[in-house]
Specification:
The complex is a heterotrimer of chains A (386), B (137) and C (357). Chain A has helices at 22-37, 52-56, 61-68, 85-98, 118-125, 141-156, 164-174, 188-192, 221-225, 258-271, 288-297, 306-311, 328-331, 339-351; strands spanning 4-11, 44-48, 75-79, 104-111, 196-198, 201-202, 212-220, 234-243, 280-282, 365-372, 377-385. By secondary structure, chain A is of the alpha/beta class. Chain A has 2 domains: 4-117 and 209-225, Thiolase/Chalcone synthase (Peroxisomal Thiolase, Chain A, domain 1); 140-194 and 238-385, Thiolase/Chalcone synthase (Peroxisomal Thiolase, Chain A, domain 1). In chain A, the strands form 2 sheets. A 9-stranded mixed β-sheet of chain A has the order 3-2-4-7-1-8-11-10-9, with helices on both faces. By secondary structure, chain B is mainly β. In chain B, strands 6-5-4-7-8 form a 5-stranded antiparallel β-sheet. Chain C has 2 domains: 16-180 and 325-350, Thiolase/Chalcone synthase (Peroxisomal Thiolase, Chain A, domain 1), CATH 3.40.47.10; 181-323, 3-Layer(aba) Sandwich (Peroxisomal Thiolase, Chain A, domain 1). In chain C, the strands form 3 sheets. Chain C has a 9-stranded mixed β-sheet with strand order 5-4-6-7-1-8-13-12-11, sandwiched between helices. In chain C, strands 3-2-14 form a 3-stranded mixed β-sheet. In chain C, helix 2 (60-75) crosses helix 3 and helix 5 (213-232) packs across helix 6 (250-259). The longest helix of chain C has 20 residues, at 213-232. The chains are: A alpha/beta (386), B mainly beta (137), C alpha/beta (357). Chain A binds chain B through residues 118-120, 122-123, 126, 130, 132-140, 142-144, 146-148, 150-151, 154, 196-201, 245, 247-250, 254, and chain B through 1, 5, 9, 12, 30, 36, 55-68, 70, 73, 75-77, 84-89, 95, 100, 111-112, 121, 123.
Amino acid sequence: MRPVYIVGIGQTPVGEQWERSLRHIAHDAVIPALRDAGVEQVDALYVGNMLSGELVGQEHVGALVADFVGLRGVEAYKIEAACGSGGAAMRTGVMAVAGGLHDVVVVAGVEKMTDTIGKDTTAGLAMAADQEFEAAEGVSFVALNALLMRRYMYEFDVPHSAFGHFAVNAHHNATGNPNAMFPKAITLDTYRKATMISDPINLMDSSPICDGAAAVVLASEEVARTMHNGRRPIRIAASTVATDSLAVHDRRDPMQLEAAWISSRKAYQQAGVTLDDIDLFELHDAFTIMAALSLEACGYAERGRGVRLAEEGEITIEGRVPVATMGGLKARGHPVGATGVYQIVEATLQLQGLAGRNQVRDANIAMTQNIGGSGATVATHILVGE
Amino acid sequence: MSVARTWRTRRQRYSLVGERCEYCHNAIFPPRDVCPHCAEPAQKEYTMSGRGTVYSYTTVFDPPAGFEAYAPYPVALVKLDEGPMVTAQLTDLDPDDVRIGMPVEMVTRKLSEQGDEGVITYSYKFRERLERQAVAA
Amino acid sequence: MSLENGISLMKPLRPVGIVGYGAYVPRYRLPASEVARVWSGRDAELPIVEKAVAGLDEDTATMSIEAARNALARAGVDPKRIRAVWVGSESHPYAVKPTSTIVAEALDIVPLTQAADWEFACKAGTEAMQAAIAFVGSGMADYALSIGMDTAQGRPGDALEYTAAAGGAAMLLGPAEQSLALIEASLSYVTDTPDFWRRAHAHYPSHGQRFTGEPAYFHHVISAAEMMLEGMGRTAADYRYAVLHQPNSKFPQRAAKQLGFRKEQIETGLLAPIIGNTYAGSSLIGLTAVLDEAQPGDRVLVVSFGSGAGSDAFSLEITGAITTAQRQALTTKEYIERRSEIDYATYARYRGKMLMK
């Protein structure tokens, strides 16, 4: 397999982009990424997207975006793995280049979630779950996470307030990210007083509904060497995807994200790194409970102890495991199918020393983890600055 | 839910008809073509008793489209006595009365309907188990 | 009124009895005082104390399923041997499409079964029971399930809104030798008397106010009861219990008195004061309350009434099988004691009485 490099990145501000449609948002990330890489043509475009069909009434997004950004003619299609679509698209791009089938590809993640009203978006998001035996019972996606969080609190005797540190950290970091949806610091008191949306999950446990797109250009080592944008070369040291049962009720142990465990262990092996080597971790904090479960599955904490890392300040930019360094899903925003690519873009900025006041010191190795549904698809990437 | 899907899953929805694996003997619900425990195919039909306990619960305040008429409603992961876990609504109780470990039993209730003119989907929900005093006495 | 021209009571070719019974009453209660608070504004005498109201996710199909599950639990019969599922109601969830197929499927009685819905206002359930007796009695089937169930509709502010309630019962009929209550004889008494009706597509029923009394309820109930007593060669004193259709608290008490029944004979089955008028379920759930307490050898007279109008009368004798059967499912009383009071606003939401579009 050939080494794969990130040679260009692009992202749009995350938020309610009333004046831009799905295709425009994709354009706003892909064009900057192509410019950043200094290329005009690529071999393929892989678009991570979850809900274009349900929320925009548009499928066939690969060809649509390719044409709209001036890449008419290239191989292009949409990659879908619920909220893990961006990570899965990234994995697809890596496979294409590493396998030698392509030399330069664009991986984009795009989501337009604000063209519909709340209950329809809620129904759309529930499609990440088992439609026949979870969503059909009237269980929203938030509710599924609430079921996990309630059980976690019960099983490990963790008070709800302890999760607040994840939200506080994410919001704090978002203040240093010009593309974040909520660049506004919050306190534990804000967290405690937030509106309940599906007990015990309140508004501050939950990532927002929003629009956004991010893109990266991937190239083979040979091509990457010909590109000189003056920035640190970023190599993709690991790219893995693992799956679990779609439904929470079918898990062997709902308190363990088995796919995250498999995917992270494969990634450590591929990259030849241990946890101690990783300088920052862009995790999938769609809900605070997911942040805790993800940290545990990846080996940062024992079962039931993930929240302690947050409580003890280990997840801040200065901490042992900086997470959500640009605001995470909670405060940067979670345009579902785009999130996995945002994580890659942000990790790249960190490794290139371009994260501004959110810069993690001496960042050389970054991990990203994008989760589809309540844990059924997990894509893990490890990036290394050379 | 579409007419065909409502119809296709009616035995699961009305009576929790699942399977029991002939190889590893685990009870399976909903039925699958391949056992999730031992990956062997072709399972034997097996109907769950409908009794279980609450593994976790929450309340849906902002329901997905199609469930507006019922909100807010409690939902739960119910661990059936036979082993499988099901995701279902709880009924006949106030959200404040639910607790983890609460014994529950299956009832058949209206789940959703496609407007005033569409078909009605009936499905399993769970309520706090009603104890028979006659038996206790 | 008496049996004329040599016409006798109805008896099947082979003896038939009730082999299983089950009640269902939903959890919610609306006190009549709440209806009075909203609509009357007067401190008038109320027709009942409170009525049972179905939850948002309940209808005649779901309540029938639970009552039928209770009946089968008591009977211990293989569902596949039941050859008819007949649900009597005036609140079937569909105008066209049987409630009975839903019940039959939920109880695994399908596919070799009759299934149909019955309509005869408040006596649709006992009408189904008459048919079930005939079906088993003729030898066409060993078991037939008849159900009377309703989520009764009442126009907001109307006199019926105080009483129109939800609930009912299921009766599994089978061979007499397996029965917990033998059907000694039955009788149906019908005339064309429009005391209460609901036109197709109308949401709420209409009624003839005081006309629903003398020429309708009292005439039919008393005629049917008197003929049954005459045909059996008995008097009221020969029965341990009597259950009469109960649209309110007063009517059945007055009719019972006129027939010579004492308070002790009717109080067990008189549920209207605390659950209201469950329409097609009314007389049958009165019967389940009696069966919950009856002893072997007790005799029970049941007389239903359906507007339009008619009455079905049944004479039952309790057998030794009752004692075990009583304990196999929740009793009527246990359902009634499972009580959660709601206010008129909640009731209006639960019963779809708010304009939503």
